[in-house]
Amino acid sequence: MLNEKQEEIMEAIWCAAEYKKYSIDEIKKRCIVEFTEDDLSELEKMGMILFKQDRILFSGKGKETAKAIMRRHRIAEVLVSSILKLRNSAMEEIACKVEHCLLEEVEESICTLLGHPAVCPDGKPIPEGKCCKNRLKVIGNTVVSLVKLKPGEKGKITYIKPGSHSNLHQLISIGLQPGIIVTVHREKPVFCIRFENTELALDAEIAKNIFVWKIDKDLMIE
């Protein structure tokens, strides 16, 4: 998984390539963070980019990764521009913060809400997502308390409302944190969930304070 700095570098490489520019200098002009050749070497070791003479190119894996990053960024730009009515530097600053927090399910729902925009506010193309290809018309995923899920249903944790700090730290220590996908195993006699290789019984009050992005397979399409 890339960190935020690496994602910004990948964005800059993508943006430079849109103008058929591939040199380090051109990439640095488009990057909002400073980086060194060591940072690029790390991306090369991760299989994201290739050095060809004085050109920096994406590998196949890197191109797909960068495509997803650019999609999140430009969807975020449309969101803050059309919904929050922000412009220019304020739009760019907030979009940069939003993009790093977007889960795939949230991104698809925002894209659907916005009508699957093809371009961002400055006219640059937004890479298509799964929801665009399927032309989803209904936002099928919602954030709900974990106790609202039935046995067999899944959700990705978005946040945990601490009933007490000790409970919150205990959940995090066993790996139950935002981004983790959980499946409700049973409701009675105790509320039980499964995640990764763990099965866990939860007190009902604690489960109520865990909020998940419900993963719904029955989304409407055209």
Task: Summarize this entry quickly.
The chain is α+β, with helices and mostly antiparallel strands and 222 residues long. It has helices at 4-18, 24-29, 37-45, 60-82, 88-99, 104-113, 130-134, 165-173, 204-208; strands at 49-52, 55-58, 143-145, 154-160, 181-186, 191-195, 198-202, 210-215. It has three domains: 4-58; 65-134, Arc Repressor Mutant, subunit A; 143-215, SH3 type barrels (Roll), CATH 2.30.30.90.
Description:
The chain has helices at 4-18, 24-29, 37-45, 60-82, 88-99, 104-113, 130-134, 165-173, 204-208, and strands spanning 49-52, 55-58, 143-145, 154-160, 181-186, 191-195, 198-202, 210-215. With 222 residues, it is α+β, with helices and mostly antiparallel strands. Helix 1 packs across helix 4 and helix 4 crosses helix 5. The chain is elongated and about 65 Å long. The relative contact order is 0.10. The model is unreliable at 218-222 (pLDDT under 50).
Search tags:
single chain, 222 residues, alpha+beta, Arc Repressor Mutant, subunit A, SH3 type barrels, 3 domains, 6-stranded antiparallel β-sheet, two-stranded antiparallel sheet, 9 helices, 42% helix, disordered C terminus
**Total number of beta strands:** 8
Q: Strand arrangement, largest sheet?
A: 3-8-4-5-6-7
How can the largest sheet be summarized?
6 strands, antiparallel
- What would you call the structural class? alpha+beta
| Secondary-structure element order, N to C | HHHEEHHHHEEHEEEHE
Please name the fourth-level CATH homologous superfamily of the largest domain.
Ferrous iron transport protein A (FeoA)
- CATH class call of the largest domain: Mainly Beta
Q: How many domains make up the 3D coordinates?
A: 3
In the CATH hierarchy, what is the architecture of the largest domain at level 2?
A: Roll
- So how many helices? 9
Radius of gyration: 20 Å
Helical residues, percent: 40-55%
Average per-residue pLDDT, rounded, comes to 83
The stretches of 5 or more residues where confidence is low (pLDDT under 50) are 218-222
